[in-house]
Design brief:
It comes from Roseiconus lacunae. Keywords: Signal. There is one protein chain. An eleven-stranded mixed β-sheet has the order 8-7-6-2-1-11-12-19-18-15-16, sandwiched between helices. A three-stranded antiparallel β-sheet has the order 3-5-4. By secondary structure, the chain is an alpha+beta fold. Strand 4 and strand 5 form a beta hairpin. The chain has three domains: about 230 residues, TIM Barrel; about 40 residues, no CATH class; about 100 residues, Immunoglobulin-like, CATH 2.60.40.
């Protein structure tokens, strides 16, 4: 009897020691103890509209990604026109130099090494060619867990009624060809339907967003309001040619946003949310659509495409062209929006709270500034006759690389206070 007791006691002691040792191993595991995996919500900075030599940009994709990585971005989507950076692609050295400058390949070699850059004579005509590296080949050189992530994406570039219809699809599995349509609105709907079917068939979240609606004055607020499955569009695009401010016959993008959401509110449709992007093409200091002008700040627990997209679908992000926020919270009980700026020394800020009044209000105003506050923190409580509330924060400081005249640094929060179903 005593021997059985001693055996059981010994087994228990060994089990306790094993469990303790296993727990110590977990506690000492540097991966499991990494702050990145400690389930903390934080902001991640990213650009969702970027072009490279794979379409009409003028730089190698890994050079572009390295530019963003070195400047504190956490994620980047390469969005070349109707193509993803995948497969074998060789490009004429002359075309590369003509598009950029004579030093582009030397800088490429200097950054990534002589053995990384692949050059050959074309088997067709003997011309010098450089191989464009695909994303799945170069991402390992740049990605860092919890710091920098590349997301495969595409700008689906369509046309209808002689106008450009461009929609970005972020986190695609393969390239999607334009679906077409007899009207701009139909082309938008057809392409969006294709993206959503792609998402379902591949079992991965894909974020579609409408690009630069005023480019070629292709899209109206009515068009964007009608495509109800689309929830995202570019409230700011850093390309100088996208008519951000509109003209005497066309609304600015800022006003268009409120027009879209006033229509959607009346129809009982979810609001459109605003994204800021670079739409970068030019990376050598010349005039054009340069990087670093606009971005999104996404509030998420983890830096993965799935978590980022889920957070954006919940409105957990803001758009920026230079202003950073530490807080943009809406209390649904009190219907109060609070915005706090991450203030920069020497800058001052104006926080405008913007809404559209409900149908039947006299007068029925759209894009109405209902309250303004000078300072780095402000709170606004919605009134019963307001459809939603959003905040626009404007710094007195000029944008570091403006895309239009007299541009200031700004940030845009998403419309909140929308009726719940």
């Amino acid at each position: 009897m005593k021997s059985r007791f001693r055996f059981s006691l010994l087994t228990l002691m060994l089990l306790v020691c094993h469990t303790s040792a296993a727990q110590d191993a977990v506690n000492e595991d540097p991966i499991l103890q990494d702050p990145i995996l400690q389930d903390q919500v934080r902001y991640w900075k990213g650009n969702l509209h970027t072009h490279s030599l794979w379409s009409d940009g003028d730089q190698f994709p890994e050079m572009i990604a390295d530019w963003y990585r070195q400047r504190g971005y956490n994620f980047l989507a390469l969005t070349d026109h109707n193509v993803i950076s995948a497969g074998q692609r060789w490009m004429s050295l002359k075309k590369i130099v003509d598009r950029s400058d004579s030093g582009i390949v030397d800088r490429y070699r200097q950054r990534f090494g002589e053995h990384w850059v692949e050059q050959r004579k074309s088997p067709k005509n003997g011309d010098e060619e450089i191989r464009l590296k695909p994303l799945n080949e170069f991402r390992a050189l740049l990605e860092t867990r919890g710091e920098f992530l590349m997301i495969q994406a595409e700008e689906i570039s369509d046309r209808s009624e002689g106008k450009p219809v461009h929609i970005n699809a972020t986190n695609v599995a393969e390239a999607l060809m334009p679906a077409g349509g007899d009207t701009v609105r139909e082309a938008m709907q057809n392409n969006l339907r294709m993206i959503l079917e792609h998402e379902k068939s591949h079992g991965r979240p894909v974020l579609p967003h409408i690009n630069h609606p005023n480019f070629g004055y292709a899209m109206t607020a009515e068009d964007l309001a009608a495509v109800v499955a689309e929830k995202f569009f570019e409230v700011y695009n850093g390309h100088p040619g996208v008519n951000q401010l509109g003209d005497e016959h066309h609304a600015s993008i800022e006003l268009m946003w409120d027009q879209i959401n006033a229509i959607r509110f009346a129809a009982g449709v979810e609001p459109m949310m605003g994204i800021a992007t670079d739409d970068s093409h030019e990376y050598h200091g010349r005039a054009g659509s340069r990087p670093g002008r606009g971005w999104v700040m996404v509030r998420s627990r983890f830096l993965t495409p799935e978590y980022l997209i889920a957070a954006m679908r919940q409105g957990e992000f803001y758009a920026s062209s230079g202003v950073s926020l530490t807080q943009h919270d809406f209390d649904p009980q009190t219907r109060t929006l609070t915005v706090t700026v991450d203030a920069v020394e020497g800058e001052s800020y104006r926080i405008d709270f913007i809404t559209s009044l409900k149908p039947g209000t006299d007068p029925h105003k759209i894009g109405l500034v209902v309250h303004s506050h000078d300072g780095d923190k402000a709170t606004y409580q919605m009134k019963d006759n307001e459809c939603y509330i959003r905040a626009l924060v404007t710094s007195n400081a000029a944008h570091h690389d403006p895309s239009f005249k007299d541009q200031k640094k700004q940030a845009w929060t998403q419309p909140v206070g929308w009726p719940t179903k």
